[in-house]
UniProtKB/TrEMBL annotation:
GO terms for cellular component: cytoplasm. Keywords: Acetylation, Cytoplasm, Fatty acid metabolism, Hydroxylation, Lipid metabolism, NADP, Oxidoreductase, Phosphoprotein, Prostaglandin metabolism. This is Prostaglandin reductase 1. Its EC number is 1.3.1.48, 1.3.1.74. GO terms for molecular function: 15-oxoprostaglandin 13-reductase [NAD(P)+] activity; 2-alkenal reductase [NAD(P)H] activity. The keyword Lipid biosynthesis does not apply. GO terms for biological process: prostaglandin metabolic process.
Length: 329
């Protein structure tokens, strides 16, 4: 028998998550049967989506949802030999027996000098989210101006860099001076700390007086209400997240942007990255090439130790990370 550590959602979050919402448990796993593999976690991801999705996709007592890079340590499945690495959607657990249906092999030509943790970041779901939000939802074009909020996070930082590669002007908003400095290192044309500017409206106008063609939305709430007023006619808004709303116990209300959306004929579309899963292989290879060429930079905020999963998750929700938040086992 093999033992696994797991983090359980002890009770649904009410407001901001607390330590008492989680419980560390031990689980006994059976030996892999024909067609199955035994996985050992190497890196685990903590992401904003886990907060709202835990309410709709989980029951109290379930293992916390999430993705990890894992190593195959036993195999009775020829598609996944011992020693290969995979991306698995098995949640917050150190070991897993899988029938192969919920795992994907790391790209075959993964370079030795690129950490496998990036398969949870720029060369994984967050990177694909940035790419598809720009290409499929916004249909962004060279010469256009993009606004990104939460721009120093795993998705926003990649979205801004991809837009620059496509010949766009990029304006980013973040929540600390260190994050703003990082955005400028990445080549953002303008960046500001939304917590310290006297007026968000004026900051957006100063950064791009002519307005914005595209808006990559990660935050929602009051920021969104102000930003929509700065859109150009026929502007496109890709709604990726709403982190300012996730921990509310009382829903936020208004102002309501409907008249501006009508007058400017704006397009605003929510999306989930899985819609374009059929493109993932080609897209991930593109992202990897950009990293190898030095055109895409990926910063990570690494927490060491599986026992620190809840702390890493809560820290990410509080904006402690620059780039992708990762837990190294």
């Amino acid at each position: 028998m093999v033992q696994a550590k797991t983090w359980i959602l002890k009770q649904h979050f009410e407001g901001f998550p607390k330590d008492t919402d989680f419980e560390l448990k031990l689980e006994q796993l059976s030996e892999p049967r024909d067609g199955e593999v035994l996985l050992e976690a190497v890196f685990l991801s903590v992401d904003p989506y886990m907060r709202p999705f835990s309410r709709v996709r989980m029951q109290a007592g379930d293992v916390m949802i999430g993705t990890q890079v894992a190593k195959v340590i036993q195999s009775k499945n020829p598609s996944f030999p011992v020693g290969c690495h995979v991306v698995s959607r098995c949640g917050w657990r150190t070991r897993t027996v899988s029938d192969g249906s919920d795992i994907t092999k790391i790209l075959a030509d993964w370079p030795q000098d690129v950490s496998l943790s990036h398969a949870l970041g720029a060369i994984g779901m967050p990177g694909l989210t940035a790419l598809y939000g720009l290409e499929e939802v916004c249909a962004i074009k060279p010469g256009e101006t993009l606004l990104v909020n939460a721009a120093a996070g795993a998705v926003g930082s990649v979205a801004g860099q991809i837009a620059k590669l496509k010949g766009c002007k990029v304006v980013g908003s973040a929540g600390s001076d260190d994050k703003v400095a990082y955005l400028k290192e990445l080549g953002f044309d303008q960046a500001f700390n939304y917590k310290t500017v006297p007026s968000l409206e004026e900051a957006l106008k100063n950064a791009s007086p002519e307005g914005y063609d595209c808006y990559f939305e990660n935050v929602g709430g009051p920021f969104s209400s102000v930003a929509i007023l700065q859109m150009k006619a026929f502007g496109r808004i890709a709604v990726c997240g709403g982190i300012s709303l996730y921990n509310d116990t009382t829903p936020q209300t208004g102002p309501y942007p409907h008249l501006q959306m009508i007058f400017k004929q704006l397009k605003m579309e929510g999306f989930l990255v899985g819609r374009w899963e059929h493109k993932n292989d080609e897209s991930l290879k593109r992202m990897l090439t950009w990293i190898q060429e030095g055109n895409l930079k990926c910063k990570e905020h690494v927490t060491v130790g599986f026992e620190n999963m809840p702390a890493a998750f809560m820290g990410m929700l509080q904006g402690e990370n620059i780039g992708k938040a990762i837990v190294k086992v």
